[in-house]
Design goal:
The chain has about 280 residues and is an alpha+beta fold. Among the domains are: about 5-70, no CATH class; about 150-195; about 200-280, no CATH class. About 55% of the residues lie in helices and about 20% in strands. The protein is built from 5 helices and 7 strands, in the order ββααααβββββα. It has helices spanning about 30-150, 155-160, 160-165, 180-195, 255-265; strands at about 5-15, 15-25, 200-210, 210-220, 225-230, 235-240, 245-250. The strands form 2 sheets. A 5-stranded antiparallel β-sheet has the order 3-4-5-6-7, covered by helices on one side. A two-stranded antiparallel sheet has the order 1-2. It is rod-shaped and about 170 Å long.
Length: about 280
Amino acid sequence: MERTGLRISVEFGFGAFPALGFSVKIGKSLPSRLLKAAISFCCIQVAALYAQTLDEARNLVSEWVGVEKMISEEKADWQAGQAIIKDMIALLETEKASLMEKIRIAEEGLSESDKRREELLNESDEYRAAVDVLGDKIGMVEKRVIALHSQFPVPLQEEVSTLFARIPREGEEVRLSVSQRLQSVIAVLSQADKFNSGVQFVSDIQKLNSGQSEVDVLYFGLAGAFFKNREGTYVGIGFPSSNGWQWEEVPESGDGIVKLFSVYAGEMQAEFVELPVKIN
């Protein structure tokens, strides 16, 4: 049989991609240059095809890597967020428990406050009742204090003068509350009790029938007093009366009164001394 031509087959394979091939049938009359050109053209076409496929593969791999990276980042963010949420839940639970405890304490406090409020209301009612009773009696007490004031010795009267001036006199308009009036009365009586609980030494001017002289006075509370001048030549006693304190000379008791002042001043040892006493 007569040989009419030659067929040339070429196959290309690249990595995991399937092999591609082509074949060229060459006749007797095909020049060698044309053959070379045909083979070159086929090779170029195959190379272009493989280059396009490789770029697509690279793009797919790049996209797959990006997706995997995104999934990994999202997973890490979710795990971190989950830990934060758990911490927030624990914190809120603790705060909730604290608030519940505060509410419980507040409710107990309200109950105690209501109880205390009721007690105070009862005390207030008792106080108002006592004030009403006192309001009926305070006027009588003030009259007795005013009468008693006239029997105070002069030093005590001077000491309580401000307090005594606050006590309303009969017929005067009363502007002070019952409690304020009671405070004034109690303050005057407290000062009187303090004066009456000890011995008081003062210097004073005495005016008697025999004349006027500067004297030292020893008050034995509100019961009585003794006086003498510095020389000891002018001595006497004092005692309260409804008309105020009265003073009398007792020259016959001069030695005893002089000794009394000496003992009080620490100038001599204490001893029994006979002294005159007068009760009016």
